[in-house]
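Work Package 3 committed the consortium to producing structural models of liganded targets before the mid-term review. Because experimental data for this complex are still outstanding, the team generated a predictive model from sequence and the ligand definition alone, so that downstream docking and mutagenesis planning could proceed in parallel. The input record is reproduced below exactly as it was submitted to the modelling pipeline, together with the SMILES string for S-adenosylmethionine.
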Amino acid sequence: MRIEKQKYDAMDIFEKIGECKSELPEKYLGFICQLIKENRPAKILEIGVSAGGTTCAILNCLDKLGLQSDVYSVDLSHTYHYDTSKECGYQINDAAPYLESIGRHHLLLGRTIAEVLPEIVQDEKFDMLILDTIHYLPGELLDFLVCFPYLNDDAIVVLDDIMFAHLGENTNAIATRVLFDCVVADKILPGCDGLPNLGAFQLNEDTKKYIINCFSALLFPWDYDMDEQQLGAYRNIITKEYDEELVCCFEKGIEINRSSLGKRCRIKEEIKSIMALCSEYDVLIYGAGQRGKALYSFLQDKGKHIGGFIISDDRNKEAVYDNVPVYHLSEINEQKNRVILVAVADGEVIRNLERRGLDFVNTPNYIYPFIKQYCGIFC
Ligand SMILES: C[S@@+](CC[C@H](N)C(=O)[O-])C[C@H]1O[C@@H](n2cnc3c(N)ncnc32)[C@H](O)[C@@H]1O
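The resulting structure, written out as tokens with the ligand in place, is given here.
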């Protein structure tokens, strides 16, 4: 791991245009400029533009270094995400009169990198790639995989928000961290205090050899699916550029994630129907272990009334919950308008309930991670 201490300053462009809307702090812009100074990339690809502040700093840096590099900036959105009355990359227009390299800048909006790559690759590969987009998987991981065949052997890749899962709004925002840690390459971090939120790596002879690590990381849970057109563009590149084993890994990543994303939708539906039952019926929860207690706390927090717990006859009532009625199964008789929510994964319990002719709903295993996480935060 190399720690980069120097910095090269291209911030004066923001004094000229009167505002800096780069989402990267000055220390990270300085780090990127330093990497440009040291590596003199002839072709740069930036994915994730926003207002275009970082693009301005890059173009200004190229001017200062006298480099005639081509810069491609790609963003899925046509508008600036913090103010949709403005165009994505509007700061690049503001800065254009002050930038010589503006003539070699290309802004491509409204499409993913997989959709635009075929038209921007041409003969020359990229020497530098800057990834700063969605931060949720597959996100930057998949974007890197489609770009990798079009990167030169010693290209530099910069990743923003490698600590975002700890600093941002959601602990699932791990895409750049996963890529940074799975890729085999020479890692470079800015020399600042604490854990930097931006990092880079330089490809080496092992990156291709171990690229399967990055494909394998597609098996981590994704946060979103893509429509068939977008996915098709990624699939075309992966199929064209990688061997069968890696293509198979990519397809398995899609398949398993589509299935688990579907399961997450089912969690929502399942919880909605449990809450509806609580509004309609008298409810008892079968099981007063971790699951039963979590389900109880969750439903209470949602304003639902739960009449108490049922436990098997061989369990000790005293050890359960104060203030909540607890019944042995043998004390429960058929009753109209009452339903039992089973919160234990035990086939014998289900058989006992059936034998006794009691109305019950067997709550599925997959809702409990969500319920427990909810209770950990709110209850
Ligand atoms: C964090 S901002 C980029 C900030 C910018 N790099 C800067 O330093 O000012 C993320 C941008 O990524 C874009 N984006 C999100 N998903 C994308 C994708 N799959 N492909 C391209 N751009 C994407 C959003 O529209 C947004 O403009």
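Reviewers should note the following from the model. Residues 22-24, 47-51, 53-54, 74-77, 81, 88, 112, 132-134 surround S-adenosylmethionine (CB under 6 Å). These observations will guide the Year 2 experiments.
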